[in-house]
Amino acid sequence: MAGTGQHELERITLIHTNDLHSHFEAMPRIASFIRVQRELLGADRVLALDIGDHLDRMSPETEGTDGRANVDVLNATGIEAFVPGNNEGLTLAPELLRAAFAGRARFPVVCANLREASTGRIPDWMTPTHVIVKGKLRIGLIGVTAAFADYYRLLGWIADEPLQAVAARAAELRGQADIVVVLSHLGLRLDEQMAAEVPGIDVILGGHTHHLLEQPRQIGAVTVCGAGNTASTRASSSSRTARSGGGSSKPPAASRTSAAARPTRK
Ligand SMILES: [Zn+2]
Question: How many angstroms is it from 214 CA to the middle of ligand 1?
Fold first, then answer.
Protein backbone atom coordinates (compact mmCIF):
# COMPACT_ATOMS: atom_id res chain seq x y z
CA MET A 1 0.00 0.00 0.00
CA ALA A 2 3.10 2.21 -0.02
CA GLY A 3 2.62 5.45 -1.83
CA THR A 4 -1.15 5.68 -1.63
CA GLY A 5 -1.02 7.60 1.64
CA GLN A 6 -4.57 6.45 2.37
CA HIS A 7 -3.91 3.42 4.50
CA GLU A 8 -2.59 3.22 7.97
CA LEU A 9 -1.29 0.08 9.60
CA GLU A 10 -3.28 -1.10 12.58
CA ARG A 11 -1.96 -3.82 14.85
CA ILE A 12 -4.14 -5.89 17.12
CA THR A 13 -3.03 -8.71 19.40
CA LEU A 14 -5.48 -11.56 19.77
CA ILE A 15 -5.08 -13.54 22.98
CA HIS A 16 -7.09 -16.74 22.98
CA THR A 17 -7.59 -19.62 25.35
CA ASN A 18 -9.56 -22.81 24.84
CA ASP A 19 -10.34 -26.10 26.53
CA LEU A 20 -9.31 -25.01 30.00
CA HIS A 21 -11.70 -27.69 31.34
CA SER A 22 -12.06 -26.03 34.74
CA HIS A 23 -8.34 -26.08 35.51
CA PHE A 24 -8.84 -23.18 37.88
CA GLU A 25 -5.22 -23.39 39.05
CA ALA A 26 -4.08 -22.18 35.60
CA MET A 27 -6.49 -19.27 35.37
CA PRO A 28 -4.76 -16.65 37.56
CA ARG A 29 -1.63 -16.87 35.37
CA ILE A 30 -3.72 -16.45 32.24
CA ALA A 31 -5.48 -13.45 33.76
CA SER A 32 -2.10 -11.94 34.70
CA PHE A 33 -0.73 -12.52 31.21
CA ILE A 34 -3.72 -10.74 29.66
CA ARG A 35 -3.51 -7.86 32.15
CA VAL A 36 0.22 -7.36 31.45
CA GLN A 37 -0.36 -7.44 27.69
CA ARG A 38 -3.06 -4.79 28.09
CA GLU A 39 -0.70 -2.63 30.12
CA LEU A 40 2.14 -3.06 27.62
CA LEU A 41 0.18 -2.68 24.41
CA GLY A 42 -2.90 -0.73 25.47
CA ALA A 43 -6.36 -2.19 25.97
CA ASP A 44 -7.43 -0.98 22.52
CA ARG A 45 -4.68 -3.10 20.96
CA VAL A 46 -5.52 -6.36 22.72
CA LEU A 47 -8.53 -8.61 22.25
CA ALA A 48 -8.95 -11.50 24.72
CA LEU A 49 -11.18 -14.40 23.69
CA ASP A 50 -12.10 -17.84 24.97
CA ILE A 51 -12.94 -20.61 22.51
CA GLY A 52 -15.00 -22.86 24.77
CA ASP A 53 -14.88 -25.84 27.10
CA HIS A 54 -13.87 -23.45 29.84
CA LEU A 55 -15.96 -25.52 32.21
CA ASP A 56 -15.86 -29.18 33.08
CA ARG A 57 -18.30 -30.69 35.53
CA MET A 58 -15.58 -33.01 36.85
CA SER A 59 -14.47 -29.96 38.83
CA PRO A 60 -16.26 -29.49 42.17
CA GLU A 61 -16.15 -25.70 41.72
CA THR A 62 -18.02 -26.04 38.44
CA GLU A 63 -20.38 -28.79 39.59
CA GLY A 64 -21.21 -26.98 42.81
CA THR A 65 -22.11 -23.75 41.06
CA ASP A 66 -23.57 -25.13 37.81
CA GLY A 67 -20.87 -23.31 35.90
CA ARG A 68 -21.30 -19.91 37.49
CA ALA A 69 -17.78 -20.06 38.97
CA ASN A 70 -16.42 -20.35 35.43
CA VAL A 71 -18.39 -17.34 34.22
CA ASP A 72 -17.13 -15.33 37.19
CA VAL A 73 -13.54 -16.24 36.26
CA LEU A 74 -14.12 -15.36 32.60
CA ASN A 75 -15.42 -11.97 33.79
CA ALA A 76 -12.46 -11.46 36.12
CA THR A 77 -10.05 -12.43 33.32
CA GLY A 78 -11.50 -9.74 31.10
CA ILE A 79 -12.53 -12.09 28.31
CA GLU A 80 -14.20 -9.99 25.62
CA ALA A 81 -16.12 -12.72 23.76
CA PHE A 82 -16.78 -16.43 24.27
CA VAL A 83 -18.07 -19.34 22.22
CA PRO A 84 -19.57 -22.28 24.14
CA GLY A 85 -17.94 -25.66 23.68
CA ASN A 86 -19.63 -29.03 24.01
CA ASN A 87 -18.80 -29.07 27.72
CA GLU A 88 -20.92 -25.96 28.16
CA GLY A 89 -23.65 -26.90 25.67
CA LEU A 90 -24.04 -30.60 26.36
CA THR A 91 -23.27 -31.04 30.05
CA LEU A 92 -25.47 -28.22 31.35
CA ALA A 93 -29.18 -28.35 30.59
CA PRO A 94 -30.31 -25.26 28.64
CA GLU A 95 -31.90 -23.63 31.70
CA LEU A 96 -28.70 -24.09 33.71
CA LEU A 97 -26.63 -22.74 30.84
CA ARG A 98 -28.89 -19.71 30.68
CA ALA A 99 -28.68 -19.23 34.45
CA ALA A 100 -24.87 -19.36 34.29
CA PHE A 101 -24.44 -16.87 31.44
CA ALA A 102 -27.54 -14.69 30.98
CA GLY A 103 -27.21 -11.47 32.94
CA ARG A 104 -23.99 -12.74 34.53
CA ALA A 105 -21.45 -12.80 31.69
CA ARG A 106 -19.97 -9.36 31.05
CA PHE A 107 -18.98 -10.46 27.53
CA PRO A 108 -21.02 -11.58 24.53
CA VAL A 109 -21.64 -15.31 24.10
CA VAL A 110 -21.14 -15.64 20.35
CA CYS A 111 -22.54 -18.72 18.63
CA ALA A 112 -24.07 -18.91 15.16
CA ASN A 113 -25.07 -22.58 15.02
CA LEU A 114 -27.15 -23.30 18.12
CA ARG A 115 -30.89 -22.59 18.13
CA GLU A 116 -33.60 -23.41 20.65
CA ALA A 117 -35.82 -26.16 19.27
CA SER A 118 -38.90 -24.61 20.90
CA THR A 119 -38.54 -21.29 19.08
CA GLY A 120 -36.20 -22.13 16.21
CA ARG A 121 -34.20 -19.08 17.23
CA ILE A 122 -30.86 -18.32 18.80
CA PRO A 123 -31.61 -17.58 22.49
CA ASP A 124 -31.70 -13.94 23.54
CA TRP A 125 -28.54 -14.30 25.66
CA MET A 126 -26.44 -15.43 22.68
CA THR A 127 -25.51 -13.61 19.52
CA PRO A 128 -24.38 -15.18 16.23
CA THR A 129 -21.87 -12.41 15.54
CA HIS A 130 -20.37 -9.48 17.37
CA VAL A 131 -18.34 -6.51 16.16
CA ILE A 132 -15.69 -5.06 18.49
CA VAL A 133 -13.88 -1.84 17.63
CA LYS A 134 -10.21 -1.65 18.65
CA GLY A 135 -8.38 1.47 17.66
CA LYS A 136 -9.58 2.09 14.12
CA LEU A 137 -10.17 -1.57 13.40
CA ARG A 138 -13.64 -3.09 13.33
CA ILE A 139 -13.24 -6.76 14.24
CA GLY A 140 -16.14 -9.00 13.31
CA LEU A 141 -16.48 -12.17 15.40
CA ILE A 142 -18.43 -15.30 14.47
CA GLY A 143 -18.75 -18.19 16.94
CA VAL A 144 -19.38 -21.82 16.03
CA THR A 145 -19.45 -24.95 18.13
CA ALA A 146 -19.16 -28.67 17.44
CA ALA A 147 -22.56 -29.79 16.13
CA PHE A 148 -23.34 -33.01 18.00
CA ALA A 149 -26.83 -32.74 16.53
CA ASP A 150 -28.37 -35.87 18.08
CA TYR A 151 -27.20 -35.04 21.58
CA TYR A 152 -28.19 -31.39 21.27
CA ARG A 153 -31.66 -32.44 20.05
CA LEU A 154 -32.20 -34.44 23.25
CA LEU A 155 -31.59 -31.26 25.26
CA GLY A 156 -33.89 -29.08 23.15
CA TRP A 157 -31.32 -27.51 20.86
CA ILE A 158 -30.94 -27.50 17.10
CA ALA A 159 -27.26 -27.65 16.17
CA ASP A 160 -26.79 -26.37 12.64
CA GLU A 161 -24.04 -27.33 10.22
CA PRO A 162 -21.25 -24.99 11.31
CA LEU A 163 -19.44 -24.19 8.05
CA GLN A 164 -22.70 -23.12 6.39
CA ALA A 165 -23.43 -20.95 9.42
CA VAL A 166 -20.00 -19.31 9.14
CA ALA A 167 -20.39 -18.76 5.39
CA ALA A 168 -23.73 -16.98 5.85
CA ARG A 169 -22.50 -14.81 8.73
CA ALA A 170 -19.15 -13.96 7.13
CA ALA A 171 -20.97 -12.63 4.08
CA GLU A 172 -23.12 -10.44 6.38
CA LEU A 173 -20.16 -9.24 8.47
CA ARG A 174 -17.90 -8.36 5.58
CA GLY A 175 -19.62 -5.02 5.08
CA GLN A 176 -19.48 -4.13 8.77
CA ALA A 177 -15.96 -5.21 9.72
CA ASP A 178 -12.37 -4.77 8.53
CA ILE A 179 -11.32 -8.20 9.72
CA VAL A 180 -13.42 -11.33 10.31
CA VAL A 181 -12.35 -13.70 13.09
CA VAL A 182 -14.04 -17.07 13.69
CA LEU A 183 -14.16 -18.44 17.24
CA SER A 184 -14.29 -22.12 16.38
CA HIS A 185 -14.95 -24.89 18.86
CA LEU A 186 -14.97 -27.36 15.94
CA GLY A 187 -11.54 -28.96 15.92
CA LEU A 188 -8.56 -28.63 13.62
CA ARG A 189 -9.85 -30.73 10.71
CA LEU A 190 -12.96 -28.59 10.30
CA ASP A 191 -10.95 -25.40 10.85
CA GLU A 192 -8.69 -26.36 7.96
CA GLN A 193 -11.69 -27.20 5.78
CA MET A 194 -13.30 -23.89 6.74
CA ALA A 195 -10.14 -21.98 5.83
CA ALA A 196 -9.99 -23.69 2.44
CA GLU A 197 -13.68 -23.49 1.54
CA VAL A 198 -15.47 -20.61 3.26
CA PRO A 199 -14.86 -17.17 1.79
CA GLY A 200 -14.68 -13.97 3.77
CA ILE A 201 -12.67 -15.13 6.80
CA ASP A 202 -9.31 -13.74 7.93
CA VAL A 203 -8.51 -15.63 11.12
CA ILE A 204 -9.75 -18.85 12.75
CA LEU A 205 -9.08 -19.30 16.46
CA GLY A 206 -9.70 -22.97 17.19
CA GLY A 207 -10.29 -25.36 20.04
CA HIS A 208 -11.98 -28.68 20.84
CA THR A 209 -9.21 -30.97 19.51
CA HIS A 210 -6.68 -29.36 21.86
CA HIS A 211 -4.29 -28.68 18.97
CA LEU A 212 -1.40 -26.37 19.70
CA LEU A 213 -0.15 -24.55 16.62
CA GLU A 214 3.16 -23.07 17.76
CA GLN A 215 3.03 -20.92 14.65
CA PRO A 216 -0.27 -19.97 13.07
CA ARG A 217 -0.98 -22.05 9.97
CA GLN A 218 -1.58 -20.09 6.80
CA ILE A 219 -4.19 -21.62 4.47
CA GLY A 220 -4.69 -19.33 1.50
CA ALA A 221 -5.55 -15.94 2.97
CA VAL A 222 -6.70 -17.42 6.28
CA THR A 223 -4.60 -17.65 9.45
CA VAL A 224 -5.48 -20.72 11.54
CA CYS A 225 -4.53 -20.72 15.24
CA GLY A 226 -4.98 -23.18 18.08
CA ALA A 227 -3.86 -22.74 21.68
CA GLY A 228 -3.64 -26.35 22.86
CA ASN A 229 -5.51 -26.91 26.08
CA THR A 230 -5.68 -26.40 29.81
CA ALA A 231 -2.80 -24.11 30.60
CA SER A 232 -1.65 -22.86 27.22
CA THR A 233 -2.03 -19.23 26.34
CA ARG A 234 -1.32 -17.99 22.88
CA ALA A 235 -0.94 -14.46 21.72
CA SER A 236 -1.16 -13.90 18.01
CA SER A 237 -0.59 -10.54 16.45
CA SER A 238 -1.92 -9.57 13.10
CA SER A 239 -1.18 -6.38 11.30
CA ARG A 240 -3.81 -5.14 8.98
CA THR A 241 -4.19 -2.05 6.96
CA ALA A 242 -7.24 -0.31 8.24
CA ARG A 243 -9.57 1.23 5.76
CA SER A 244 -9.31 4.94 5.88
CA GLY A 245 -11.21 5.70 2.72
CA GLY A 246 -14.65 4.28 1.96
CA GLY A 247 -15.17 1.66 -0.69
CA SER A 248 -11.82 -0.09 -0.53
CA SER A 249 -11.83 -3.84 -0.73
CA LYS A 250 -10.76 -6.28 1.95
CA PRO A 251 -7.51 -5.02 3.47
CA PRO A 252 -4.51 -7.27 2.91
CA ALA A 253 -2.48 -8.76 5.70
CA ALA A 254 0.82 -6.94 6.08
CA SER A 255 2.55 -9.13 8.61
CA ARG A 256 1.80 -11.50 11.39
CA THR A 257 3.71 -12.49 14.44
CA SER A 258 3.01 -14.85 17.22
CA ALA A 259 4.20 -15.11 20.79
CA ALA A 260 3.45 -17.71 23.39
CA ALA A 261 3.37 -17.69 27.14
CA ARG A 262 2.78 -21.13 28.44
CA PRO A 263 2.64 -21.53 32.17
CA THR A 264 3.95 -24.88 33.33
CA ARG A 265 1.24 -27.42 33.76
CA LYS A 266 0.67 -29.18 37.03
ZN1 LIG B 1 -14.72 -29.55 23.04
Answer: 20
